[in-house]
Amino acid sequence: LPNGRKKQYRRMALKFAPLSYNANTVERRALLSATAVGGSVFVMVSGSLATRYKAVKEDLLEVQESFRAIASSSGRSATSAS
Hints:
The chain is of the alpha+beta class. It has one helix at about 55-65; strands at about 10-15, 30-35, 40-50, 70, 80. It has a three-stranded antiparallel beta sheet with strand order 1-2-3. It has a two-stranded antiparallel ribbon with strand order 4-5. Strand 4 (about 70) and strand 5 (about 80) form a beta hairpin. The two termini are about 15 Å apart.
């Protein structure tokens, strides 16, 4: 990272079943990556339908691991990049 210090990222896998527009539940799986930079928390979630998860898991892992949040040079805000 630009300041030479490694940021800590929390990564986790989620299973959930939100309601669809017609009140049916839809099983989903997601991978989450989060970190704190400059007093703000940045979170990125990549997910899919549970029935497709095995087929796209490698792509979702790549997205999860590519997530970075870097403090701006002014120190007032941060940018997220993936």
